Request: fold
Amino acid sequence: MTSGVLKGTNQKAIEEVTSLAEEIVDLISV
Reply:
């Protein structure tokens, strides 16, 4: 049960970091 919650949290964190990284790349590219 706990591992499931942690996995969900990690997935959301990874998605947020990925989107943030993409925004940074866009800023650098421009």
